[in-house]
């Protein structure tokens, strides 16, 4: 896996103009009473997990009546951040992690780690990131069909970046290769920020990324296709067509779901704090000020709340699907 060095540019809540009151509600966060929280992000600064966590941080901290510090712990196919949460404060509910489905499943199913799905307690789903194909404005292709035609004529020559080789974005490109009979040069990076930087710097020719987490480069790039049955985000995706509609194929919908996770020990041994996290997340995603801040960024439609049970069901379904993929090609997701 190629991991370039990039300059970290954290997206701070203050820079987004997020303003919250300094007081928590009287009945919020009773399990914390000012105990600070480490909010672990398992990827580099500037990626989707990082940006989403920093957007939410002041609102969740307010709901819990405490403070939260976002901490990037990238590496290890996003396993390091998960492990840090579990081993450093996880049992006391003083560490939480933003992770994704299927990213979390890949982190323990494709490498040797000492955790699995049962190690985590879902707090709730946060948002959805539909997959898209994005290229620079100067790219020679005006449509996804032109890109596919070029990839057919030049096998292995078109470089695509993805946030990891263990992500929904990588799955989407593998499915494209298989369905279309093309060969892409897919390069995995250590997070969405470096993956998009690779596109802007000219290190790669295209990227498969999320609708919302790639908005930071929207002025310099354009979307060729949306990896969904319909484009419900035309204003922020250049009104790009669904990939199946443009190419006349039947690829499955592609997206990642962002969720907040605590440790299973937190849920089992500190039920009051765990419930405070569950209630605080729901309150955050319903907070009018948070939603207004997202609206200013054009990101309000990414919010997709899931209850802990719904997120756990989604994670189990993803694990089952990945097991089938690995049975067919056990080395497909190795770096």
Automatic annotation (TrEMBL):
Pfam (any one): TctC
Gene3D superfamilies named in the record: Bordetella uptake gene, domain 1, Periplasmic binding protein-like II
CDD domains: PBP2_Bug_TTT (cd07012)
Family: Belongs to the UPF0065 (bug) family.
Cross-referenced PANTHER family: BLR1237 PROTEIN, TRICARBOXYLATE-BINDING PROTEIN
Name of the protein this chain belongs to: C4-dicarboxylate ABC transporter substrate-binding protein
